[in-house]
Design brief:
It is an enzyme of class 3 (hydrolase). This is Cyanophycinase. The protein is α/β, with parallel strands linked by helices. Helix content is 26%, strand content 27%. The strands form 3 sheets. Strands 8, 9, 12, 13, 16, 17, 18, 19, 20 and 21 form a 10-stranded mixed beta sheet that branches. Strands 3-2-4-5-1-10-11-14-15 form a 9-stranded mixed beta sheet, sandwiched between helices. Strands 6-7 form a two-stranded antiparallel ribbon. Helix 1 crosses helix 6 and helix 5 runs parallel beside helix 7.
Amino acid sequence: MLKKLGVALALAVCAGAVMAADAGPPKGSLVIIGGGLRVNNAEVWEKIVALAGGKGARIAVLPTAAQTPAKEAQLTVDALNRYGARAFVVPVAPMLAGTDVRKAADDPALAEAIRKAGGAFFTGGDQARITGSLRRADGSNTAVLDALWALYRRGGVIAGTSAGAAIMSSTMFYDPPLEVMPVLKNGVADGKDVAPGLGFIGDDVFVDQHLLARGRFGRMLPAMLAKGYTLGLGIDENTAAVVGPAHDVTVIGYRGALVLDLAGATTDKSKPGFNIANARISYLDSGDRFNLATRAYAPGPGKEPVDWQYVEHRAPIFYTDILGNTAVADLLEKLVDSDLQRAVGVAFEGPDSQSPDRGFEFTFTRVPDTAAFVTNREDAYSIYRIRMDVRPVRVHQPFYTVE
């Protein structure tokens, strides 16, 4: 029922009306976390508190997406307070017992508390609960959502993890299949697989989360093509992308993020199946910087250009599950630490899946605008502008036989 209500609300809002009424560009920052944020990840928690105003900063915690909002809210409040904040719970959550989410989302006292805070934090869960709760039935903003925009425009920080990251773009994944392959095979449907988000990052960047752990760069591609995005930002677990008011992004935390650039990409609609040519994929390591407006990259401290005269990998690079946990980042690292120009990965499903004979080939190629950097001590890579082409392939079944 909640998802149906969320769809109705989302479809009532046209793409250009995702953001609140224009009151100038936001002066605040975003901390977009790819999910799985651990309490001991001091770098991310401390950044949120610092951007909210430092020690003693008031941060509103919205457990709107959570299945168990009271528990999630308390855990988040405790974590923020551990790092110096004075966090408080905003009880706007459809799964919160004994509350009317519609009434709470328009409560003037709650809205005023958010408006006066230095930051807000969305927990994980189901992002449809966030958009379905913070917009009215006619698609207009609730008082709480208007207060969040006021906080952000004034200079506060909006942070979110997992579902709280998905709502950052104007289009979000809404209720897609759990696995990536069905999205690649069947595309995305408005109001079901994708729907309007809250758009804090703006209208021209598509955001996704759990990126490397779940191979979700694969599902970003058809969604971006369907909705006309040329820039995608996908953040891995226990990692955050900090977005400043000048559209500058800094990656912090455990791992990294992927940037998908489709500005020069093409797709052949005359051919059956999803395909794309001449896309660019980049891996931003923790500490790296990227500007969403200029598309300029800068490696983090201690990074030096990879010396391609001294490489480790010389055998052909072929991955049989490019959508596996960290597989695409691993492949890219091997490619730039090799004497090869090209690496290949494939994606397919098992014999019991729907259309098991349909798969995809991902080709990654070093091109003149490719750049790569590494730290010798940690063997940590930053890899920018690798060409990526995807085409459908036929998988022979059975894929193997037992001898």
